[in-house]
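4.2 Preliminary Data

To establish feasibility before requesting continued support, the project team ran the inverse folding procedure on a target of 130 residues. The structure was first converted into the token representation described in Section 3, and no sequence information of any kind was made available to the design step. The complete token record follows.
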């Protein structure tokens, strides 16, 4: 005969039940530091994209747009160290010798390699520029 403890009144239950070893603790996979670092590194490597190979036509269009937007705010989509980035910035100047565009973003001045730029737009309206 099997007794169901849920049907026995609480007062009749034995309160001296041994606990044994108690709860067995386990360590989640991500808390093992070496494995977490390796998985994080693998995830980062999988998210990287290769350097763009832009056509001459696209480079010419980007150059024309960049010249028109010197001194104005633009949205630039570009490749940097395996990651595609978007930045809203002011185009300061274009350096043909280095092949870079100097930009200013919230008081930070930096340069972007011209051959890594996918797209340049002014406030998202490409038709007004071309």
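Position-by-position output of the design step:
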């Amino acid at each position: 005969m099997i007794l169901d403890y849920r049907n026995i009144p609480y007062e009749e239950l034995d309160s001296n039940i041994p606990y044994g070893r108690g709860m067995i603790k386990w360590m989640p996979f991500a808390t093992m530091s070496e494995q977490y670092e390796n998985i994080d590194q693998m995830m980062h490597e999988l998210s990287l994209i290769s350097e763009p190979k832009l056509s001459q036509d696209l480079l010419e269009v980007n150059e024309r747009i960049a010249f028109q937007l010197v001194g104005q705010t633009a949205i630039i989509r570009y490749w940097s160290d395996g990651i595609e980035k978007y930045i809203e910035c002011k185009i300061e100047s274009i350096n043909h010798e280095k092949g870079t565009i100097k930009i200013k973003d919230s008081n930070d001045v930096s340069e972007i390699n011209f051959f890594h730029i996918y797209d340049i737009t002014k406030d998202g309206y490409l038709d007004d520029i071309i």
